[in-house]
Amino acid sequence: MQKIEIQAQPRTVIGRATKQLRKQEILPAVLYGNNFKSLNLQVPTKQFQKAYVMAGESTLVYVKVGDESYPAIIQDVAINPASNAPLHVDFYKVRLDEKIKAKIPLVFAGDAPAVKSFQGILVKNIHELEVEGFPQDLPHEFTIDLSILDVIGKQIMVKDIVIDSKLKLMAQPDEIVILVQAPISEEELKKQLETATAGTEDVEVIAKEKKEGEEGEAGETATPATAGAKKEEKK
């Protein structure tokens, strides 16, 4: 696997002033990790974009700051929705002797004969798989060959995906990744959509009733748990 390096420099500009960095095609960044004091960094935007295409958010990269080189995973990238340009990047420093969990994207390659010959419908249930392994062993993606889907009802399950023996799959082996479903008529499709809409309305009614008559304990509202990896404050 090719070693991916990103040259970074310490960053003193913070807050709204980072807008000026982006105009110079410099991307604000932060490097953090467990038992590691976070570093405010800046990296050339074009260099980062090239590395991001190669690494995604699962492949190991090396963030070079002066004479130091830190092994890291691209943890999160903030994107400008208007221009699709990166606004900020988080690097999570890892240890090469400690296993981590990461979600690897699935890439579906080729054509399913059952779709072409029998007008079947491809149903993709999973778009990424979580694995556990050492950072240097994590792949960029898993490729799924669709050419084996030659009849209606054929499916590919998690256990059918060949992965490196150094990795451990966290998903259930019998979980369906993708299958070919029989074609449905317009009437059946309309009926399914109506059923789905009715279910949504029921959920909305329940939510409304709870909002009007039921408060959480001590009036508190539950919020999603923060990811375990992001324990340190980022600036």
TrEMBL record:
Listed GO MF terms: 5S rRNA binding; structural constituent of ribosome
Segments for region (Disordered): 201-235
InterPro entries xrefs: Rbsml_bL25/Gln-tRNA_synth_N, Ribosomal_bL25/Gln-tRNA_synth, Ribosomal_bL25_b-dom, Ribosomal_bL25_C, Ribosomal_bL25_long, Ribosomal_L25_dom, Ribosomal_uL5_bac-type
Domain of life: Bacteria
Domain Large ribosomal subunit protein bL25 beta: 99-183
Cellular component terms (Gene Ontology): cytosolic large ribosomal subunit
UniProt feature, compositional bias: Low complexity: 219-228
Residue intervals of the Large ribosomal subunit protein bL25 L25 domain: 6-91
GO biological process terms, semicolon-separated: translation
The keyword Ribosomal protein belongs to this UniProt entry's keyword annotation: yes
Alphabetized UniProt keyword annotations: Ribonucleoprotein, Ribosomal protein, RNA-binding, rRNA-binding
PANTHER family assigned to the protein according to its UniProt record, in alphabetical order: RIBOSOMAL PROTEIN L25/GLN-TRNA SYNTHETASE, ANTI-CODON-BINDING DOMAIN-CONTAINING PROTEIN, RIBOSOMAL PROTEIN L25_GLN-TRNA SYNTHETASE, ANTI-CODON-BINDING DOMAIN-CONTAINING PROTEIN
Family: Belongs to the bacterial ribosomal protein bL25 family. CTC subfamily.
Subunit architecture: Part of the 50S ribosomal subunit; part of the 5S rRNA/L5/L18/L25 subcomplex. Contacts the 5S rRNA. Binds to the 5S rRNA independently of L5 and L18.
UniProt xrefs under NCBIfam families: bL25_bact_ctc
Known function: This is one of the proteins that binds to the 5S RNA in the ribosome where it forms part of the central protuberance.
Protein name: Large ribosomal subunit protein bL25
Gene source species: Candidatus Yanofskybacteria bacterium RIFCSPLOWO2_01_FULL_49_25
